[in-house]
Each structure stands twice: as structure tokens, then as C-alpha cells.
Amino acid sequence: MKFVLEIAFDESDQPTAITEIGRALRYWAGNLKHYDLAEPVTEQITDSAYEPIGSWSIQP
Q1: Which of 27, 31, 45, 50 could join 54 via S-S bond, C-beta 3.0 to 4.6 A?
Q2: Domain residue ranges in the chain
Q3: Taking the complete model, does pTM exceed 0.70, yes or no?
Q4: Rg (CA), the chain
Q5: Angstrom distances, CA of residue 14 to CA of 19, 22, 30, 36, 44
């Protein structure tokens, strides 16, 4: 199984990027229990303003 997380931010705004990446990691780590890890899945990741910033995927 492979877990891939991709998040893109403007590198000039590091404090916001660090905060948003931490938030995304906490949120999705808590939600992984709802997924069958034997099945492929991809989900969009949004920031705290609900703007798309990336995605994560599970590849069995």
C-alpha cells in the first residue's frame, strides 16, 4: 500500500503553509479509519477557507 499526500502553497507564505499542512494532516489522519485501505481512493484537500490545495491517495 502507498499513501501519497500532495499539497501546494506559495513558498513566500511559510507560516500559513505550515499551519495549513498541519491542519490537513490532523484532519485526514483522523479520517483514514473510514476508508478501506485495500481499495484505491483519492480525496481533495482544502485549506481552512475551503480552497483546494492538494490531494491525498491510497494506492493498494
Answers
A1: 45
A2: 2-59
A3: yes
A4: 12
A5: 9, 12, 24, 34, 21
